[in-house]
Amino acid sequence: MGEVPVDAAGEQRGRGGKISADQARALCGIACGPFGGRWLLTSSPQRRELNWRVAATHKEIFERYVYAGAITRNPDAIAAMFTEDGVFDAPLVPDGHPPHGRLVGRDAIRTGTSVYHQQPIYQGTMNLERSAYVLHDTPDPDVFIAEIDVAFDEADGQRTTMSLVQIFRLRDGQIAMLRDYFAELPSVASDGHSS
User: Would 132 be classed as within a structural domain?
Assistant: First the structure.
């Protein structure tokens, strides 16, 4: 029969009429117990210890990463989001420009992002109305893809957009690998920080 949601008064919710929890137990020989703020009928009368935690959604992980990186530019917060052996890979960044190549482990990610965030930032003003992102789930629940367009308004009236793609691979709710496909905006890259 499966699980039957019932409310705190012991009445079944869903299609059809109402039955009490006692009636449901009598019908299918199952016990009732609490789960997630509502009552579910389960097939086992003994109390079980739930050894799990609520996993963050892809959106929550992505937004935390954006806050730690692009908004607060905090290398410690960025590194803390990764597994101990996590990998940050920026394959399109030119030689000589941080964070070129792969950063393996939290310490390397912390150091590499710290050096990157010491570079001059783009002088345009981010236009929130024109900036956007789309998250794509994949068949693997531990992998998702972010498409990002960050729009800038420049002092001379020009508009610039930086587009990037990030592929996140998770393990136990942390980033095990992040492949960050981006290229610096022309004014930053021509500032003498790329080859």
Answer: yes
Distance CA 141, CA 5 (A): 26
pLDDT tens figures, 41-66: 444 455 555 555 567 899 999 999 99
Inside any domain, residue 186: yes
Distances, alpha carbon 76 to alpha carbons 27, 65, 72, 82, 168, in Å: 56, 11, 11, 10, 19
Residues 147 and 105 in one domain: yes
Q: Does any domain span residue 62?
A: yes
* Total domains present in the chain: 2
Quick one: pLDDT band at residue 4, thresholds 50, 70, 90?
very low
Confidence (pTM): 0.66
